[in-house]
Amino acid sequence: MKRLVTTLGNLTLEQDAVILPHEHVFVDLRTWDQTGYAQAETEDVIRLMLPELQAARKAGIGVIVECSPIGVGRRVDILTAVSRAGNYPLVVPTGVYREPWIPRWVHKAGELDLEEWMTEELVVDIEGSGV
Asked: What is the pLDDT of residues 37-67, one digit of tens each?
């Protein structure tokens, strides 16, 4: 059995369950310092993504790993809303993308600060979202 923490809570899957390991439900490739970065209307993203989730479900995909970390517009609130609207589990990542998408605070943080931040996201929740 595979055990995953998803936007719909803890999930146990059969060993042969199909997981898409690298997808983007919401991503913004502008850099974090540009106007409008990571801004979107949640309902617009839901409307855009629900047919894609339905197609994935029809193809036998049980879970999608949404791999957009901070720096490329990770929005746990939007991911959770899309997931709930489609009743489709998403795995949300922790971590940071690469230059030039690394936020200023990451450059200033020490190794232990980053470890603590990532551990908090993996063990407790991401950005107070409950995920």
From this structure: 999 999 999 999 999 999 999 999 999 999 9
Q: How many whole angstroms separate alpha carbon 98 and alpha carbon 71?
A: 8
Helix 42-58, helix 76-86: angle, nearest 10: 50
pLDDT, one tens digit per residue, over 73-94 is 999 999 999 999 999 999 999 9
DSSP state letter for 75:
-
Q: With contact defined as beta carbons under 8 Å apart, do 25 and 64 qualify?
A: yes
CB atoms within 10 A of CB 105: 11
Which H or E element spans position 49?
helix 42-58
Q: Pull the structure tokens for residue 84.
A: 């709930």
In contact, 89 and 63? CB cutoff 8 Å: yes
Helix (H, G, I), strand (E, B) or coil at 112: helix
Strand-pairing partners, residue 6, are 9
Three-state SS across 84-106? HHHCCCEECCCCECCCCCCCHHH
Tokens linked to 61: 């995909």
